[in-house]
Amino acid sequence: MYALKLILRNALRHKLRTALTMLGIVIAVLAFGLLQTVVDAWYAGANAASDKRLITRNAISLVFPLPISYRDRLRQIDGIKSVSFANWFGGVYINERNFFPQFAVDPQTYFALYPEYKIAPEQLKAFLRDRRGCVVGRKLANLYGWKLGDVIPLRGTIYTGNWEFVVRAIYDGRDTSTDTAIFFFQWDYLNEAINRMYPRRANSVGVFVLQIDEADRAAEIARKVDATFKNSLAETLTETEKAFQLGFVSMTEAIVLAIRIVSFLVIFIIMAVMANTMAMSTRERLSEYATLKAIGFRPGFLLLLIFGESLIIALIAGTVGCLLTFPVARTFVAHTGTLFHVFNVSSQTILMQLGAAFVIGTVAAVVPSLRAARQGIAEGLRAIG
Amino acid sequence: MPVPFSYSLRNLAVRKLTTALTVGGMALVVFVFSTVLMLEAGLRSTLVGTGSYDNALVTRRGSGAEVQSAVDRVQAGIIETQPEVMLDAQSQRLVSKEVVVLISLRKRGSDRPANVVIRGIGPQGMALRPQVQLVDGRMFRPGSSEIIAGRSIGERFAGAGLGETLRFGMRDWTVVGHFDAGRSGFDSEIWGDTNQLMQAFRRTMYSSVLLRLSDARAFDAFKRRVEGDPRLTVEAKRESVFYAEQSEALARFIRILGLTLSIIFSTGAVIGAMITMYAAVANRTAEIGTLRAIGFRSGSILWAFLLEALLIGAIGGALGLALASLMQFVSFSTMNFQTFAELAFSFKLTPAIAVQAMLFAVVMGLLGGLLPALRAARLKVVDALRAA
After folding, report:
1. Best label site of A23, A277, B198, B342, fewest CB within 10 Å?
2. Contact B303, B342 (CB under 8 A)
3. Which chain A residues in 33-72 lie under 8 Å from chain B, judged by CB atoms?
């Protein structure tokens, strides 16, 4: 017990130094947590994917469409329960900074395939009745202050011209990991306009979404789908929704990797600061340690003192950093708009933050405590700090 | 009279571990700071180097990227016959009507997919881009299923090596050559015959028209006429401007992310320097008292301690910069958000970045050392001497 008291007294001996060290650790743990959450947000789409959905796209690349006539042939394939489709619209709301994904979807089937988008039945009915209607996510609605009945203008980049949509429904996410920053509208509305403007590009879709019976048969069904359209004008590539989403992530992999590396660098930087603090404290106390040894304490006791002090400082600061992560993450996401669709601090992140604080405290104490333990008594008593 | 410089220098040498740790922290921060700036500089030089100033690129109005653009044959013909277009030695118009699409290729080793730009170029396509040189193999023969690939594509993607084949559009395409585009964006592309690629992809429209102006100053007149022509729904940009705009979002993203990180990290390093310097002052109180007693002024003391902090900053900065300069050998590839295509670029160290990084390091040292140095300067002689 008196060891703990001694440790606490030691930690508070240089209040300014301890406070500065703690501040550094708080900042580092906070930054580490935020960066980990940013990486998680990158993978949010893949993690929210259902293993009972397959995505079929043009084998050349996503830029190329598939003919709508494939829908009927897909329906005949054994194991596929239902088929829906979507088309990337790529419109701009006011200016390029307000980026959010927009999809032209089949209103009858799409939302049945995505039960995680919760829409009130009467709103869904209103959307089905209005060809210009659109469904927007709660996050988008809150961000731009959209209400039911509002008219939303988009400027098309792929399908040029000015488009207007009426908000008929607002969807909520079933889970916290559901993306509620997507904009859906009726594929028929888009197709009619394309038919007028560029008849050759009409009656095509970007991707088909397939609902399958059993997740275990995903690979087999995907092969069957691709075999059906082999050697046709538009060959297909079918993969699970998760693989499809991971494909996007892997294209920006280098950035994710850089963020990961940097998030560990910040821990290294603060480790150097903490180790410095401990090295200075022990150097100043070398004569005290010699005294303790002279009156009979073993080197193990000195190790306990130094490790204890280092860990107490690191863990207190680490806990504060963890607690601060939640409000800071909320403020951060409020300021970045639609950049991150899902931004949740996971329990794993918190554990990693605490783990990092623990490692900082431990590593920082290694060299100073060894030095103190090895120091000869006579030499130590002579030390002047 | 100032305190000798060697006093500050030797003080750093006495506490080796402390100095090393503080300098190490600073070096890491400077490393992050300069790599971010280098990455942004590399991206800019890649995309700015992609276009030439006296070329004009014509795309459909409002489409932003070439992949989204479409220019039909009639419009392309009108653009081709504008009087500003330069003629070559054989009196051929220097115009390339191109088709640009994305194809999904798998990376060697990891088998991960990435989008790669495949560009169909006209007969003058190479002449319009003098920075592009064939380095391996030969040029593709017009009218055949042959393609040439940028050097970095050949290294990174399966099927893009010399003599290998890629399958798309119901045909096998043989890679017959590799080109080097002087580290520009074209290094991340695959080129083939425009007519063959249009057939394979069932396209009836070109994506863009690239042309050389006979006089670079004639661009404004060209732009006005082309954009004002009621038969055309296009916009014209200088090629260099067009490619620079393509990287804006990615460059901004890298910049904001990197600077935010640098600022957060630098607070950590400043705190580290502050702790070190406060300890240095506390340990040397008696010494400071002695210095004052033998006649050094408080201003000299302030300067001596500040100098010590600045030295820590400068050493850390130099070390961080040295580490960062090694990054020039690393190449970085990611998807450009604006074009959805893979783009490879490298870290580029410019003199401006080196100066900025050193300034950043010295300012960190200054911020960390200022308060402790003030404390040292304000010590009263009698109290300081008694502290021993």
Report:
1. A23
2. no
3. 35, 59-64
* pLDDT tens column, B45-65: 888 778 888 899 999 887 778
> Which pair of structure tokens corresponds to residue A61?
């690349």
**Residues A84, B174: Cα–Cα separation, whole Å:** 37
A174 exposed, middle or buried (CB, 10 Å; 0-12, 13-18, 19+)? middle
Q: Which residues of A touch B103 (CB under 8 A)?
A: 60-61
| Radius of gyration for the alpha carbons in chain B, expressed in angstroms and rounded | 30
Report whether B43 contacts B345 (CB < 8 A). yes
- The continuous run of DSSP H or E covering B133 comes out as strand B133-137
Helices first, then strands: H and E counts in chain A: 15, 13
Which residue has better confidence, A43 or A336? A43
| Angle at CA of residue B44, ends B42 and B48, nearest 5° | 125
Nearest CA in chain B to A281: B279
**Cβ–Cβ under 8 Å, residues B354 and B321:** yes
| Pairwise CA distance, residues B273 & B276, whole Å | 5
A212-269: pLDDT as tens digits: 988 889 999 999 999 999 888 888 999 999 988 888 888 888 888 888 888 888 898 8
Neighbours of A197 (CB within 10 A): 13
Q: Are A235 and A325 in contact (CB under 8 A)?
A: no
Measured at the CA of B16, the angle between CA B13 and CA B22, to 5 degrees, comes to 105
Nearest CB neighbour to A63, from listed B70, B101, B110:
B101
